[in-house]
Specification:
Helix content is about 5%, strand content about 35%. The chain is mainly β.
Amino acid sequence: MCAVPIHHPHPAPPYRPLPHPLATIRAGFSGFPSPAEDYVGRTLDLNERLVKRPAATFFMTVSGDSMESFGIHDGDTLVVDRSIDAHPGHIVIALIDGEVIVKRYEMIGRRPYLCSGNSRYAPIPVADLDCQVWGVVRAVIHEFPV
C-alpha cells in the first residue's frame, strides 16, 4: 500500500499505574456489588494497557467528523502503532498529498482505498496518490463532556 515514515510528533508517556478494582462494571442492572469489593492493591496503567510497543507508538488528536460511524469523533485521541502492517479493515493514519488523515484501509475490487466513516466523504483511491501510512490505530480515547 504506502510506505511507512520514520518521524512522529507525540511519543508515548512513561508508565503511571492508577487504581483499578477487580470488579467489572455492568452495563445492565443486576444488583449492587460493594464499592470496596476487590479494590485494594490492583492498579492499571493505560500505557501498559493501550501501548503494546512504546518505541513504535504515538498519539494523534482527531479533527473533523469523517470517522464518526467508526466511533472516532472530533477531539478524540488516537493511540497509533507504526510497527503494525496495515491490512484491509484497519484504521490508519496516512499522509496523502501533504495532508495527515485518519481513514479505514479497504480494498474495493482489487484497488486500495482509504474510506471515511461518514457517507458525505467519498473513498480515496491511493494507488495514484503520494501516500505514506504513519501507523495503525490501536485505540481511541473518547472523553465525555463534564
